[in-house]
Amino acid sequence: MAIHTTDAIVLRRYPFRETSVIVSCLTPEFGKIKGVIKGLRGPKSRHRSAMEPITRNRIVFYDTRASQLHLISQCELIDPLARIQEDLPTARLAAFFVDLAETVVPLEDPQPKLYHLLKDALERLAVGQTEPSELRVRVVLRMLRLAGFEPQVDQCAHCTVRVDSDGFWSARVGGLLCRKCLHEDANAERMSALQLETLQQLSDEDAISIMDSSVLEVLRRHLDEFLTWRLDRPLRTQRMQSAWQM
Q1: Which domain holds residue 56?
Q2: Which residue among 32, 59, 82 closes a domain?
Q3: Segments in 205-235 forming alpha helices (H)
Q4: Which of 15, 49, 82 is the last residue before a domain boundary?
Q5: Which of 16, 101, 109, 149 is deepest in the core (most CB within 10 A)?
Q6: Residues 101/114, Cβ–Cβ less than 8 Å
Q7: Residue-wise pLDDT tens digits, 198-235
Q8: CB-side exposure of 128: number of CA atoms within 13 Å?
Q9: Using an 8 Å Cβ cutoff, are 24 and 34 in contact?
Q10: 31 & 13 share domain
Q11: What is the pTM of this model?
Q12: CB 96 within 8 A of CB 235
C-alpha cells in the first residue's frame, strides 16, 4: 500500500456514513482521485481542513491498489479561495469550472496541464482580475481539449478540411462544418471570420488580447450547446443556470 502526498483541488464532497466524507479531487501528479476521509464531520476531527469544494489542499492518501477509492489520512488547507464566494456570478462560474472538471476528467489519469489550468482559472477568479466571459470560453475549450472531448475549431468535423473562413457551427456534428458539408446539419449556424479567429485564438494561445464581448457570448452559447450534445449527462451547473434565467 503506497502513501502519497500531493496538492489537490476539491471538486466534490459527499457525506459517507455518520462522520466521514468521500471527496473527488484533482491533483497534478495523480489526476482525478476519489478518497474517503474518516471522521471529518465528527465533533473532534483532527483534520486541518474541511475539504470543501473549490478549495486547494495538501493531502496524504493511501493508494489501496484494490479499488479507485483511496483512504485520505491527512488534509491541510492551502488556499480557501475565499474571495470567490463573495460575488455570486463569480461563485457560479467557479462552480461551473469544477463541475466540468469532475465530469470530463477520467479517474487516475495524470494531467498536470489540466490541473494547472483549473488552478489558474480559480486563482484568477479569486483576485477578480479577469474578464469572466473570456475566461469561461478559454477554460472550456482547453479543458475539453486536454480531456479528449474537444470540438473541432479549426477544421471541418466531417471532412477535416481546414476552416479559416466561411465556417458553420454544429454542436451535433462536433464543431465546425465547411460549406460543402452542410448536409450533415441543416441547422448549422454561420460563423463570422471574427468569431472563427477568436475561437481558434482562445483554444491555442496563452497570451490573449481583449476580446469582443458579443463574440464571446456567441462562443459561450455554442460551447454550451456542444456540452449538451457531447456529455452523457448535463452539467448540474448548466441546469442550475437555466433555472436562474427563467
Answers
A1: 2-82
A2: 82
A3: 213-230
A4: 82
A5: 101
A6: yes
A7: 988 888 766 456 678 899 999 999 999 999 898 877 78
A8: 8
A9: yes
A10: yes
A11: 0.90
A12: yes
